[in-house]
Specification:
The chain has 823 residues and is an alpha+beta fold. The protein has 25 helices and 13 strands. Strand 5 and strand 6 form a beta hairpin.
Length: 823
Amino acid sequence: MDGERGGTGGGWCCPPMDLMRSEPMQLVQLIVPIESAHLTLSYVGELGLLQFKDLNIDKSPFQRTYAYQIKRCGEMARKLRFFRDQMWKAGIVPSVMPLMDEVNFDDLEAKLGELEGELIEVNANSEKLQRTYNELLEYKLVLQKAGEFFYSAQSDATAQQREIEARSVGDESIDRPLLLEQEISTDLSKQIKLGFVSGLVPKEKSMAFERILFRATRGNMFLKQSLVEDPVTDPVSGEKGLKNVFVVFYSGERAKTKILKICEAFGANRYPFTEDVSKQRQMIEEVEGRISELKTTIDIGVLHRDKLLKNIGYQYESWNHLVKKEKSVYHTLNMLSLDVSKKCLVAEGWSPKFAASQIQDALERAALDSNSQVGSIFQVLQSKELPPTYFRTNKFSSAFQEIVDAYGVAKYQEANPAVYTIVTFPFLFAVMFGDWGHGICLLLATMYFIIRERKLSSQKLGDITEMTFGGRYVIMMMALFSIYTGLVYNEFFSVPFELFGQSAYACRDPSCRDASTNGLIKVRRTYPFGVDPVWHGSRSELPFLNSLKMKMSILLGVAQMNLGILMSFFNGLFFRNGLNIWYQFIPQLIFLNSLFGYLSLLIVVKWCTGSKADLYHVMIYMFLSPTDDLGENQLFPGQKNLQLVLLLLALVSVPWMLLPKPFLMKRQHEARHQSQSYALVHSDEVDSIEIEPDHDSHGHEEFEFSEVFVHQLIHTIEFVLGAVSNTASYLRLWALSLAHSELSSVFYEKVLLLAWGYNNIIILIIGGIVFICATIGVLLVMETLSAFLHALRLHWVEFQNKFYEGDGYKFAPFSFATVEEED
């Protein structure tokens, strides 16, 4: 298998790795009898190793063979969604029971229909009873509040009558009304009888309700309102809200008609009311009795509905799995073409070569289990179509592969950057995030997800939590590398420790009075690992760390860019593309290393020799004055001649990249075109039929030399300028590492140490809380995200653009596992 995995064209150039090259694919054809087609697709879906091609792309979904079956599945899925929503409203969680695939599909369809009808009927009855119950509750409130209105009005009228009678017994007074005797002696039959309307109106509409009533009746009405303290459920909408009980008194039928229309417009529920106190009490008792009966009936209905939903919940998952499975099978069957005899279905699709035996076994099992008289036929087709890309990943490597696929899916059997991303991505992140205290915090956080991954993977998480959980192994690698680089930088929340021995430097005398002026002297061997702790807090800390991290960033950047160019060589060797090797890989390697490879060499030599040469001066005057003497900036003998040679190679490599490749591509195209024409003339009729499609495809593929040349010119300019800008882009490693270190130092010194210096427990607690919040919020969240995005950019732009085309498409097999993940 490893020999096949390397590919057919030059597979010997690379070690056989599962992730280096995508799996070798083949186009296969299946001829399946109709009677065993459904079972065959079910077994193939359980394998999940065959991507079907749509052979009915010219047909609409309604014209396909299994459109009716898909419609049935869609209707069953709708019923299941209805059950799920009802269970969610009732607070019932479906039980995770073993999947029961032996349930017959037709029986399940009938059962779901019966359950839906029963549930709809129960809901309709429950809603009707609940509406009546809410109406009765409102009616009870109206009877109570309106009764209070009439009782208080009658009490006031009785008291007023007594006062009038008491006045009439006394002597006549100048204050006595002149028309009082006439009013009292008026015939009761001639008094006007007032009508009234009672009900409830929403509190927020009560003011507008009163104004409209006043304007519509021109003031010929009297409105009395009283607020109900507790929220009231509206019988129509079912929403809870505050309401006012109102009684409107009016005179005349026209006023009554207007008032009734206004009540309808404002959503005011009206209820009948009588002035007779004894009847009021009787009505209240009747309403309370009906409310009690309805409450009992509603509770029984809810218990029945919950019992029904619980029975559904026990089997919901198995039913849902079966419906999804059946729908996916029929959807895939619709992609198969019907044979002329209409007795078998023809399928085409891509599968990995290693899966051929498994697919054949599935076909044989399906033929046996379905008692088919004819077996299915499996054969491999030859095709010039670009196959899909398939990498076999596990839970560790899948997240790194997703990082690469986010930029673009690899072309078929193109070198996969994910192999190197597993190491380089967390390492470059750690260079910017170097603090082993922060690294331990990240590691503890991600270990929580890793330890509980089995439980968390079966739960629905929030967007951010789910994204973090999916990248748990990436974060683990980032944390481990951050601990390593933190030990190299010797920073634990910005505090240095002598973990690997004592510092190599000490004061000149026991008093250390001249430590800040004359500095320290070296008294021991060099600190064995990482930065000497004595550098932290010294005057020269920043210049020293700046110089170290800046030069380290350039070395890492040049190394990774060289790796990218080297991968383009392996791609050219694998695909037997000599043009890319001779006229792209070699000149790019020469150009990059003539300039920035040489700069990396100077950095290493300067570190080894302890020279004080100015590397900025060396690189600038290498271009401006290449023949001038280097003077004190010379690092080794023959440096001037080497610079001249490297500069000449860099200048030669530019036209080397630009000119030969377009002309050679033109010559290859002309030679291929002539050979195809010759084959057409000297072939017989049968052969010409076979060659004709290929001839058409190449003959109509016009070779525009101008377009190819312009494309190569753009590519050359992009690489030349990119060599400078990409190298400078790696300085972000230095900048973010410095920012992280300085922020950590500021939080430690200006918050924690400052609070400690006050010798006050309250200030110390506040300072500790601020320090923890700042560390988590800024350094462990924002800085982690920032360093992650910068490492992502370095891989996508500076590394992958040297060799990675990323114009392929991902292998998407028919699999029940992916069907279950989709909701």
